[in-house]
Amino acid sequence: MTLLNLPTPPVLVAIAAEYSPVILSGVLLSLVSIYLASKIGAEVAKKIDFPPVLGELVAGVIVGVSALHLVIFPEAGLTAQDSFLMTILQFVNQLTPEAAAGVFEAQSEVISVLAEIGVVILLFEIGLESDLRQLKEVGIQATLVACVGVAVPFAAGTAGLMSVFHVPAIPAIFAGAALTATSIGITSKVLSELGQLKSKEGQIIVGAAVIDDVLGIIVLAVVASLAKTGEIDVINVVYLIISATAFLWGSILLGSLFNRLFVRTVQSLETRGSVVIPAFIFAFFMAFVGSTIHLEAILGSFAAGLVLDETDTRNELDELVKPIADLLVPIFFVTVGARVDLGVLNPMVPENRSGLLIAVFLVAVAIAGKLVSGWATFGQAGLNRVAIGVGMIPRGEVGLVFAGIGSASGVLSKPLEVSIIIMVILTTFLAPPFLRLAFGSSTPTTTPAES
Amino acid sequence: MTLLNLPTPPVLVAIAAEYSPVILSGVLLSLVSIYLASKIGAEVAKKIDFPPVLGELVAGVIVGVSALHLVIFPEAGLTAQDSFLMTILQFVNQLTPEAAAGVFEAQSEVISVLAEIGVVILLFEIGLESDLRQLKEVGIQATLVACVGVAVPFAAGTAGLMSVFHVPAIPAIFAGAALTATSIGITSKVLSELGQLKSKEGQIIVGAAVIDDVLGIIVLAVVASLAKTGEIDVINVVYLIISATAFLWGSILLGSLFNRLFVRTVQSLETRGSVVIPAFIFAFFMAFVGSTIHLEAILGSFAAGLVLDETDTRNELDELVKPIADLLVPIFFVTVGARVDLGVLNPMVPENRSGLLIAVFLVAVAIAGKLVSGWATFGQAGLNRVAIGVGMIPRGEVGLVFAGIGSASGVLSKPLEVSIIIMVILTTFLAPPFLRLAFGSSTPTTTPAES
How far is the C-alpha of B59 from the C-alpha of B112, rounded, in Å? Predict the structure, then answer.
């Protein structure tokens, strides 16, 4: 089994055959570290009344390249020797440095793909939870808030980065795009705590956040595709916007036909996994199509979630997807944090100061750009426009998806990537207290409705 | 991002960075193929009244190297050009042959590890379902049946392979060990259909099958460890048997202390995944320990399952593990089938005939060796000993775990590996009709008890 002297491509084959139990050990140990970090982070965040997802992200930063070096990836010159877990594995299994390097690469690749599958499943779940019918009720006001809340931060962020900070066009567009999405989860949780979920402001915020998610994912698909080709061509941009929109709406329209087929198939199946396997065949197939037509895998799984949300098996599916998402989504959040090198923003190093200024700028645009969206509403006397604007501020998980995909595509410079993560963390931390302040200054304009 | 000219080890890093979306596409497409095959196979098997797991295995053979070449692995000289899925990916993404080779290796490595995680989770689930308290009731009779049913096929199989077929000692021991385990799932399903689950024979069969699982996993850990070192040393064998047994019983004993800690921890958690994440931290950690002390990862997750089976959260955990197992376990069964090259037993090729004889021999020993175990019972007048022996025949999923691990360790020759798979398929196909015949000739010796 000593194939190690073969030429370049089969290296992994040889390492995989020789060290397959060690690779599995490495993956298991990485997963144990990731799960411990995510659970401790989520629980601590919950105790101090912050969203659990932020705790998972910060825990990821702690176990990652910035601090403990438990979960690191072979990028930016890091090797097996830098990884604390690999040191353990190398000692226990008496690996040579070459074997350790091979095992480190193989297990990192597996964890990276698991994180990508995690975000595919996260968007599938968000799709399953987004109720398209609800959008019709909130209507035009929510659409206006969403569009302003996407356009203003995107335009201001991209223009500012290019003109003031001389960032090249593609990374500037990517960072601008990362400013667009609103986290529906965090906002709707705070609104429900304040008893404002069914107020007119609450309804507009939630509706706009759903539209924001859809717009944000289309923007992400377009921007990520631009990052792949590396050039901005007006025809290409128009083609991408049309194809991403067409893909999403096309799958939803075809979905209503597919729905019945899906429910009939699921009902006729008699073996274990009769709901979950067909659902994931559909989600993974759509993700594959999304990726193959040079958009994004997550656009496909999001569309699959929107489609299956309309079926009768929806509630059963929600329950079954939950434990799967619980197991795979934290891998994504923790590894996004683990890849962040906070060192690039250390204010003690003079070269880092421009990076710090970018972070401050992005946070300011992220807050101001969403705040103005409250004034996009019209004809509604007595509406709490500040509260609507503040409700759109938190970026949460969708902002992290941008940072994660930007990091994987290699288009973002390290300071820009870290600035985006800091923007996500700060907007998400600040929104709950701001929202309480904004609503505290006014009484609900409508009495809470039943639902 | 063109790091492709760096020296050997960072090849995967370069390929991973450049082609990360393509690797994800490949993994998604492989998973879609695997899930389609597993669901179609399971449903067809169910329709013709065979165990679904056999259908998944046969479907794996069909999509694998023996026929469709949809799911294949870079081993035994297979390259990206042999893979139908890679041909699609290469065409869609315009990959160079070198890039295609790298993507093929990376995605195959990910699927292999997912299959290994699948079997880790399968054994975790089997552990969760094995009720140790039940064993005390069936007691000595079941223990005797189990021990005879493990010892006779193991000794006869190993001795026959070495003396008649001149197979070297380690592969012969491995194949002999693959003859030991009984599939509790298949037998207990048929027994329950026959209304015999609570009869004395049924109780002995189920009890013996549980003990068989435990003995079989210990035997597997010992044999796989022998295969790794490549030499048989009496002291080493004694050490391995003691350490595997001590690991299993030690974790169960310590488990009763750990149980309370686990339940308290789970109850104090407030964020999503409060049961499932701690359970998988424990299962994966135990699997890591099992693998690190040179036994097997599955021994660890099996022990974790036995421990958590005793907790109050057991029923909730069972429900949560199900969809996760539904999603990951089929990857294991389908890839075991997909790696099987039926061509090595083609009777038209004269060189294959000794392999065919081995297959016939293994099937005969597998049936006869379990049949005699019925006569290990004593002092029970009127007991249907034939039915007990027949009930122990099906090998099912645990037999496949042996074949899969033997294949991964490289210790089994291709004909021997295929013979084991055929033995598993035939014993599992034959047991249900045989069991009906055996019980048809006698009335239940006891009336069905309540439980």
Answer: 17
